[in-house]
Write a structure and sequence with these properties.
The chain has 2 domains: 18-115 and 219-333, Periplasmic binding protein-like II (D-Maltodextrin-Binding Protein, domain 2, 3-Layer(aba) Sandwich); 118-216, Periplasmic binding protein-like II (D-Maltodextrin-Binding Protein, domain 2), CATH 3.40.190.10. The chain is 40% helix and 20% strand. The protein has 15 helices and 12 strands. The chain has helices at 46-53, 56-59, 72-80, 92-99, 147-158, 178-183, 196-203, 212-216, 228-233, 235-254, 257-264, 273-285, 297-309, 319-322, 326-333; strands at residues 17-22, 25-30, 32-38, 62-68, 86-90, 106-113, 118-122, 138-140, 168-170, 189-193, 207-211, 222-227. The chain has a 5-stranded mixed sheet with strand order 4-3-5-12-6, with helices on both faces. A 5-stranded mixed sheet has the order 9-8-10-7-11, sandwiched between helices. It is globular and about 60 Å long. The two termini are 39 Å apart. The model is unreliable at 1-28 (pLDDT under 50).
């Protein structure tokens, strides 16, 4: 796979200190900076924003610097080039790197979401939706080889639809431009993440008619990952990062959508609170947020099935080759 150049990095220096007593004198310690690149900004990643807004990363002594890298290829390029330390992106990207024979493979160490996060949006609201209505229509899909597109095609096939034969499939629109393309008139149906899907409903530009997450089943959809070399040199940091994530996951599970919305709203300043509450509820109801950071082997095998169905898998990557659950398991034992 050809990785395109990474986007410019946003480096904001911010050092916080804590005082600890030692040998009768105050000792100043700096939080460890961790540069995180997320593949997109989405309410699908609510536990990540909760870990930031609720101070769970800081409690672990980490200064997490978050940037949005817009697309799996750009995110992985940033990670491989050292522009970021940790990536939040689909775990399929680690398989692509592994299939290339990387000497320093990318390791999945903590799961964030466990279903696909996209929804099928129709331009016109049907009286009653049936998947067969897509046949012969133009479908504005996600990037070929990316997890959203593969999960989407997997779901379509389950419904008896040949994505390439029964639809006019459009896959050449850049990830960040898909909503604008649909809004301008391209496609009868589009595959969108939240909150964009609900925004289109609110603006009368489309109607959510189905969930690809429900149709494609559980899989390690979005995962925190890092290069093996980084993990080997920063095991304590990775452990603290995973500890903070698990705190956030438990917090998300315990809180109502309204409280979660208030926690993540600073990351979605242009989105109305009522819409955020609705989206969070939608994701919680379909159990998209992983309950803990452990990457399940059965879900991993489902991921491989999805990739194989899309023709993107050279061979089935062994679970233990690029998955390290040791940090997640320790976080859960605390």
């Amino acid at each position: 796979m050809r990785w395109r150049k990474a986007i410019a990095l946003v480096l904001i220096a911010g050092l916080s200190a804590s005082l600890a007593a030692g040998c009768g004198q105050a000792k100043r310690e700096e939080n460890v900076k961790v540069r995180v690149g997320e593949v997109t900004r989405s309410l699908f990643y609510a536990p990540e924003y909760a870990a930031l807004s609720q101070g769970f990363f800081k409690e672990e002594g980490l200064d997490v610097e978050l940037q949005t890298t817009f697309g799996g290829d750009k995110t992985m390029t940033a990670l491989l080039s050292g522009g970021i330390d940790v990536a939040l992106v689909g775990s399929e990207t680690t398989i692509y790197v592994f299939q290339q024979g990387a000497e320093d493979p990318v390791i999945n160490f903590a799961q964030l979401t466990q279903t696909d996060g996209t929804f099928l949006v129709a331009r016109d609201k049907p009286a009653a939706f049936e998947w067969s209505q897509l046949k012969g229509k133009t479908f504005l899909g996600q990037r070929k080889g990316g997890m959203p597109q593969m999960a989407g095609e997997f779901a379509l096939k389950k419904q008896g639809i040949d994505p390439q034969g029964d639809l006019k499939m459009i896959q050449n629109v850049d990830f960040a431009n898909i909503p604008a393309a649909f809004a301008s008139g391209t496609g009868d149906y589009v595959q969108l993440f939240e909150p964009q899907a609900s925004v289109f409903e609110q603006e009368g530009k489309g109607e959510v008619v189905a969930s690809f997450g429900v149709e494609s089943g559980n899989l390690p959809y979005t995962v925190f990952m890092a290069k093996r070399s980084y993990i080997d040199k920063n095991k304590e940091t990775i452990q603290k990062f995973t500890n903070a994530l698990f705190k956030a996951q438990k917090w998300i599970a315990e809180q109502p959508p309204e409280a979660i919305a208030d926690a993540v709203l600073p990351y979605f300043e242009d989105t109305e609170r009522e819409l955020v509450v609705s989206v969070i509820k939608r994701y919680k109801d379909q159990q998209s947020y992983a309950a803990n950071p452990v990457i399940d082997e059965q879900e991993w095998n489902n991921l491989l099935d999805v990739m194989a169905s899309a023709g993107e898998l050279n061979e089935r990557t062994p679970f233990g080759a690029i998955v390290d659950n040791s940090f997640a398991e320790r976080a859960m034992r605390r």
